[in-house]
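Hi there,

I know you've been waiting on this one. I reran it after we fixed the sequence typo, so this is the corrected version. Both the input and the resulting structure follow.
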Amino acid sequence: MPRFRNVSIKQKLTLIIMFTSSVSLLLVCTVFVMYEQATFKQTMHDNLVTLARVIGDASTAALTFNDPDTATEVLTALHAKPEVTCACLYNSVGETLAKYDRKNPDGSCPPSPLDERYDFGAEALTLFQPILMDGERIGMVFLQMQLDEYYNRLQQYIWIA
């Protein structure tokens, strides 16, 4: 390979332009993938909060009358959302009223926290959302969503970039 000093000015300019363009393209693609990752995570969180609110609204009667059968029926409707792997309903004192677990029906629910909380783990997004009626907390809902769709989408964006 010829030394850079011995290369013609035309070739030097071509190499510099190619290098600068490649670095710029790599930087833009990296920022694009990072932006998509952040917005998709936010969208997943927003969708899970909405689903938790719907479940909370549908289960207010079950929580008010301490009816585990109705609460279980409400959670069983989650079979239509395959990405949701686990859900739990807690009463106002934090005791489990109903549970839905797609993978492990005999599993237990995590302890209920005192306030709203969410966590993006390596494999799942988990959310604890309070259930309110007339401004008073009557229970808590826990939802766990697999991140398979997130990783598939991220992989597609990286491949495209």
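Quick highlight: The helical segments are 9-58, 60-64, 68-76, 148-160.

Best,
R. S.
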